Amino acid sequence: MTYVSTNPADLNDVVARVDLVGAEEFADAARLARRAQREWAGVPAPVRGQVVANIGRLVEANAEALARVVTREIGKPLAEARGEVQEIADTCAFFVGEGRRLYGQTVPSEMPDKQLFTFRNPVGVTAFITAGNFPVAVPSWYIVPALLCGNTVVWKPAEYSAAAAQAFYDIFTAAGLPEGVLNIVFAEGSQTYRGLELALERGLVDKVGFTGSSEVGALIGELCGRHLQSPCLELGGKNPMVITEDADLDLAVQGALFSGFGTGGQRCTSLGTAIVHESVHDEFLRRFAQATENAVVGDPFGDVLYGPMLDGKFAVGFEKYLGWIRDHHTVHGSTGVGRITESNPRKGFLGDPDGGLFYHPVIVAGVRPDDEVFRHETFGPLVGVTSYRELDQAVELANLPGYGLSSAIYTTDPGKVFAFRSGIGAGMVSVNNSTSGAEAHLPFGGNGRSGNGSRQSGVWVLDQFTRWQSVNWDYSGALQKAQVDTPAIEADLDFRLDG
Predict the structure, then answer these.
(1) CA distance 239 to 398
(2) What angle do CA 230, 233, 236 make, to 5 degrees?
(3) The CATH number of 2-234+458-472 is which of 1.10.260.40, 3.50.50.60, 1.10.3720.10, 3.40.605.10?
(4) Which of 214, 215, 355, 488 has the fewest CB atoms within 10 Å, counting from its CB?
């Protein structure tokens, strides 16, 4: 079966054609990775770090070309695509040093003539399934540290970002990776699941990473659990932004605009609901609606807030979410609702609206806790707005949907910041900043419906791709039994000071 990847801003532009494989081919790729893993693990970690350095240099040398492939294939604005490519370079820059810092520890023993040590060992073969909204940055969060730690990789990218994935793979292999260390597999979803199932049954995969929807993540987690494995799950979000009565409203509007509508709201960290104090609710809504109405949408190679939907399936999904708007809601911030066309135009649109999958931004005010639009992720340019009276109520509303990826609070009161931080269930908290954004040396990940607590980026991800091994070395010449033969020093426990 051949998959045709088209430009979502110009549906007549075919970007790539890729042959999709079946479940057995996925398992075969895992077998190749298994054969290559021991030799790759035997390469000293600082030398593996040098390969990571090579990758970073090649990414920087090809940054503009790679960014343009991303923009053409998924419609991400070019400025954001450049930032995404920079994220790969930043990730490589960080993990180059970790090749010299895969430290274990020397631990004091409770017995004489005995030493205790710990070592980090690679997990083995890793299998990563990634989404296409960040077709090169997110894979680097998995692949770079996994390779550095001595693992081999089977990578299944999204079909609709096939060209970007192939370019990414070509850069990595050009950096000096031996054959079989990094393997790319293009496959449809059900074949990927079956292939992963086969690989796990045959003992070919030791660690799974998945970025995508909460629903599919639950299936991946269940499958791995049957094989006593704990996957890395980075899933969806319904990311709240609390705006307090003392917030800088203009700054909050900027944050909401980028959080809610950057990449067309098609990020796992996109703003879901703005939870605004009742005293500033109306003024915030007015300013936010005005900023949204004035924002430029259209050709992603131009200066726009966002471009098209990533792929036709997301356009279909977004149409369903628009159907969740109810009579008690009010819609703001746009001259229309639904797909932007010549007959349903948007003021200031850049480019040919009928050429691609462009949608009006939508602000839905008056959302309630029992609304579908409040409780579920709405992957696309849609932001809900509701109000609160006390901060405890805002935190309760922020946690209510059960996701726990990203969150934000806008306030000038440090007390509110710490109250929000301690009450929110999200893995990431921003203060006076957007819900979106990551840095290569900070842990990224969520809880609840957003993930299983695993973290990407920074030193924290090393625990996902290594296993601790303890070594107990006794050179006393006799069998010493812990807790049994431990020397004891007696104290006079009846001692009392005189006077």
Answers:
(1) 8
(2) 155
(3) 3.40.605.10
(4) 488
Q: Which residues are known to be catalytic?
A: 234
In this predicted model, what pLDDT tens digit does every residue of 256-289 receive, in sequence order? 999 999 999 999 999 999 999 999 999 999 999 9
Domains of the chain by residue range: 2-234+458-472, 239-439
Amino acid 330: pLDDT: 93
Whole-number Å distance between alpha carbons of 106 and 284 = 56
pLDDT of residue 234: 96
Give SS3 for 243. Answer: strand
- What number of other Cβ atoms are within 10 A of residue 471's Cβ? 12
Task: Give the model's pLDDT for residue 487.
Answer: 86
Q: pTM above the 0.85 mark?
A: yes
Find residue 243's DSSP bridge partners.
276, 410
**Taking each helix axis from N to C terminus, what angle separates 162-174 and 63-74, rounded to the nearest 10 degrees?**
160
| Strand 271-277 with 382-388, pairing | parallel
What's 350's DSSP letter? Answer: B
Q: What class, spelled out in words, does domain 239-439 have in CATH?
A: alpha beta
pLDDT of residue 289: 97
**Counting Cβ atoms within 10 Å, is residue 104 exposed (0-12), middle (13-18) or buried (19+)?**
middle
Q: In the block, which residue shows the tokens 């067309």?
A: 264
At 499 the pLDDT is: 67
For 351-400, the pLDDT digits (tens) are: 999 999 999 999 999 999 999 999 999 999 999 999 999 999 999 999 99
